[in-house]
Amino acid sequence: MTENPTTQSATSESHREAIPPAAFWLGWSGVLPFAALSAALLVLDETNAALAAKALVIYGAVILSFMGGAQWGIAISKRGISSALNLGSLLGISVIPALAGWVAALLPLVLSLMVLASAFLALLGFDLWTVKARLAPRWYSNLRKQLTAAVIICLGAGAIAA
């Protein structure tokens, strides 16, 4: 049995867009602390919940900074960028997540979690732009959508539990 050319082309196309397994598993492993710490806020006593909340904010700031670093890597890996933004602009944008995480860590807990969630959402918008501008691989948008949704849900749940 042979596939028709349209089906075969679509299958080949989706295969090229598949998230590499290492990126998938490492990305989702990075969500586990968000989920565990958010859940901990619901079940721990006040003292330990405060520690879990602080850990959630710090972890969120670290991962946000890491994601900004991913954008730095995307920017410097592209020679002769001919997009709407030049290299300096891309590098400048890539440091904003680290600064947002740092500021968030200095704020009261609920506001801190909301700033982190907002920063992850804003970074997703930029991540999607880099894919559209062909600076990042197409599979990156699918991974970022999944992970960002999970992280925002966890941060929101943490804010509600706090």
Describe this structure in words.
With about 160 residues, the chain is an all-alpha fold. The protein has one domain. Helix 2 runs parallel beside helix 6, helix 3 runs antiparallel to helix 4 and helix 5 runs antiparallel to helix 6. The longest helix is centred in the middle third of the chain and has 32 residues. The protein starts with a helix and ends with a helix.
Distance between the termini: 58 Å
Q: What is the helix/strand order? A: HHHHHH
How many separate domains make up the residues? 1
The helix/strand class is mainly alpha
Looking at this protein, list some descriptive labels.
mainly alpha, 162 residues, 6 helices
How do the strands and helices of this protein lay out in sequence?
Layout: H1 5-16, H2 21-43, H3 46-77, H4 87-106, H5 109-132, H6 139-161
Helix pairs in contact: 2-3, 2-6, 3-4, 3-5, 4-5, 5-6
Summed up:
By secondary structure, the protein is an all-alpha fold. Helix content is 83%, strand content 0%. The protein contains 6 helices and no strands.
